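Milestone M4 deliverable, item 7.
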Amino acid sequence: MIVVLILMPNITILLNFFTEKAENWGHIQEFILPDLLKNTSLLMVFTGVLSILIGTSLAWLVSAYDFPMKRFFKWALILPLAIPPYIAGYTYNGILNYTGVIQTTLRNQWGIEVDQKYFDILTLPGAVFIFTLFLFPYVYTITRAFLANQSASIVENARLLGRNAWEVYFRIVLPISRGAIVGGVSLVLLEVLNDYGLVQYFGVPTFSTAIFQTWFGMNDLTSAIKLSATLMFIVFGILILEKVLRGRKKYSYASAKVRPLTPVRLNGVKAWTAFSYAFVIFSLGFLIPFIQLVDWMFLTFGKIASPEFTSLLTNSLIVSFVGAAMIVVFAVIIANFARMHQSIVSKSAARVTILGYSIPGAVIAVGISTVFIQIDQWLFGFYDWVGMDPTLVLSTSLFMLISAYVIRFLAIGYNSIESGFDKVGHQFTEASRMLGMNVTQTFFKVDARMIRGSLISGFILAFIEILKELPLTLILRPFNFDTLSTKAFQYASDEQIHEASLASIIIVIISGIAIYIFHQVLEKEPN
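Output delivered:
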């Protein structure tokens, strides 16, 4: 069922791309599409390169060296993921604009008037800056996990052969980490393609903004579908490129005696240089925007805090909890089926499961709304038969929104749970079955207890992503249903940046706590 649910929106979009005629499509192709392709390409290239540079260097620094506060930075460098790019964007704009703390201090304390263009972040380079600072943890986390379990002999042998630290990093570490780096940067690029809030606020035309404007501004759903299909082709290109870049090279050990990296203690200038680098990135990516949000929150708390705001928090927690729970349930079913039945069907189901995360939220929103509207139309006769007025029931309900969350983020839960199953193997399950337990009893009494950490990790990651999610929620939420993310975006779009701080800080705090718990779960997991 879930596989069909994932496939239907995507198939609908692709079929309509080739069959449906759109009145504005010719105009979009000639005047708008070239700019969309240019801006999207520039965002992806520069964000990808900078994320690799920052993420891999920090991952190597934390894995291979000891320096002041390393234990703190080890998990704190993941915290930028707690701040969605659109929240980071309007926060930095508030810091840097004419009335922001930097320019105000320069004028009032130092008597310095500055050219406004040097502080204008609402540009394409500004968007790259935000994307890089708040998405590099994808590269950092995956690469650090890979390097933490690498054999120390590889690096030690390179050092014995006279290679210095830079040569070891560029000639040894980067090549053997290629698979992890490509995996991390592919997630960064997919997040860039998925983003709507930041590029809309910065005024950078991309596919996400064009889909929204075409659908709701021009009232042309067909052209929006064609834009969505074009974006899907770009995504498929990225996935193919990822496979090519990973290549067929594999690095394995000739011996089972593998020692993990032993960190080298840095002293003096080198130690404080490493600390300064990690601290600057952590400050830019989390500490500075967090402090600014807290300051704005105190300024507007009495104005914003109200029973209405409580409902925003309740709505966000409900959809995040329900969506994450459904993701874990479906992920467990598919992952368990795939490992118990080594067939083409099970492998295909697993691959389709991962597909949803590769498709940007705006595209999924277009596809799933089209499907649900069609289902509602098919059910008009049933509604009339039970005495209801023929109306759009499913396509205006929370069920459609939560279904979209499941499609979009199922891969997150699946990857976590699949890795848990891979670690425990089959022997315990087979022993349980031989003792007379059925599949369901075996899962709850044996498997679930052994992969508890993976279940918790999958739930936490899905919960965080749903809590922060914006494009899907903006398009598919029922009438008069707002969440913390949509309310923060609405305030920022109306230039009420201070008022957006309370919703934003709650998102950041909840996500930060969840990330810390996730890190603790990973630390306790056996390798």
